[in-house]
From TrEMBL:
Assigned keywords, A-Z: Cytoplasm, DNA-binding, Phosphoprotein, Transcription, Transcription regulation, Two-component regulatory system
SUPFAM superfamilies: CheY-like, Homeodomain-like
Annotated Response regulatory domain residues: 3-120
Modified positions (4-aspartylphosphate) in chain numbering: D55
All copies of domain HTH araC/xylS-type, residue ranges: 457-554
Protein name as catalogued: Response regulator
InterPro entries listed in its UniProt record: CheY-like_superfamily (IPR011006), Homeodomain-like_sf (IPR009057), HptR (IPR051552), HTH_AraC (IPR018060), HTH_AraC-typ_CS (IPR018062), Sig_transdc_resp-reg_receiver (IPR001789), Tscrpt_reg_AraC-type_HTH (IPR020449)
Highest taxon listed in the record's lineage: Bacteria
Localisation: Cytoplasm
Amino acid sequence: MHQLLIIDDQSVLADDLADMLPWETIGVDVVHKAYSGREALELMREHSIDVVVTDIRMPGMSGLELIAEIKKTWKHTKCILLTGYADFEYTKQALQLQSSDYLLKPVADEELMQAVRKALADLEKEWQEITSTQRAMYALREQLPKLREYLLLDLITGKTPPAPQLAKQLDMYEVPFAIGAPSHLMLLRIDDTAQRYDAQSETLIDYALTNMAAELFEDRMEVWTCKDAHGFIVCLLAEKTRQSAVGRADAGSADAPSSAEAGGQTLEDWIESRAFQLQHAARSYLRIGISVLTSKSGVFPDEIGSMHQSSLANFRHFIGRDTELFVSLAKEPTRGEPQQLGELYRSPSIGALLEIGNWEAAEEKLGAIFRELEEHWQASQEHILETYFTIASAIAALIHKNKKWLADTIGDDFYAVASGRPMNTVEELRSWTGRVVASYRRSVSSVEQDSRSAIIRQVQEYIHQHLDTASLHTISASVYLNPSYLSKIYKLETGEGISEYMLRVRMEKAASLLAQSPDKIYEISVMLGYQKPSYFIQLFKKHYGLTPQEYRNKLGV
């Protein structure tokens, strides 16, 4: 079904066209109205408009100017012009702006509906062409390298899709990695930081280095590469099947041993020898120095994210600012160095989920946090305490934000916080967390009995769920209140305006994405509902005192 927008500064005419014609008979299920070009653009930003019908002569912004603005951002939207002036110059301008039709007032109902019907048919034909199988397959083939890179970036940052979906993606992107198979991760860092590379040169060097790695490892390993948010080239390695590994050397002898096995090398020794060769080749042929770190073996894809985090931490610890070094984590002591907890700090935070009352997601988040503790840090008092302090501070902040006392809200469990009594086991921490979250939830439920408080929570929940599209108009519609009245009670209850709260939430989300995701700044801008990256950058700098790129650089991302 489709959406139609009718614009005329004479509100009676706009209302009549919108409300009196049987638009549903031609596949239009939503009809919007606007009485000026500016109001029309606001509606365009909030809704997916398929066809625009606009008068030419309007004060402020003419219909031709409006269409020009629409075509800048919504190039597939079809536009139909209405005018009482049979002027050929208008017709020429309309044709230049690629409007779908040009109708003279007063327009007959059937004539207008036929024009809209034709515009919708043209739009459907366009999209059918865009999404045709032949074009889609061609585009897929052209974009395979980037699609592979984006998928690996998702995996190393913990965004692992369900196994069936991942299997389809691996097959579609022609990535020869098997789910559940062992894999190794190798980090490469170009150490010649004194040299100044422009973007094109850096891309070429990265490309040459990844090709060298593929060439040196291809005898025994599949190699899958990407560049992470920290500037490291990430090479995921998986041992080829015996048949593929020896097939080139002896197609008729599937049982022939590989060269590494014949030399008595373990897989880790073989990887190490090839990593040294890669360092030498980079220095000899690319004239660059590189440092290399290889991980312990891990299961694909479940352990890829933790392998990446561990590799980053160990790279900084063992290599740091030194250059042209090699480190193999396979030869490190089992206990190794303490690593940062991953799930505890992965967005969304437990505090954010509890604040908006998303209890089911909060329960899942806590389950993931405690699974990580049990699987990797069961015997680490330090990691148990880190988790305890993080959860306790989040709960305390939320309770105080709701204008309640900790002791009154969580009862005896408050004294565990007040006395600083440590949590000795994961199970003890899990039990304590379950009790205080349940107490907080009961407290929130009692507060929500007050209608205004319930409305505030609905507003905040809507904003969190529709961060890229939320506006005062859509928010007020979601709670069935007049926008002016809603603004007044929200300010009265919270001390800040809805716009201020939306800005704060968007900026906090932006900071989280800048710190934890590889997304580009303009991509983050669109995710948060800002179509113009320059406006997003201006707001972010005003909020944090730094541009998004300066913020990301400061974090070392």
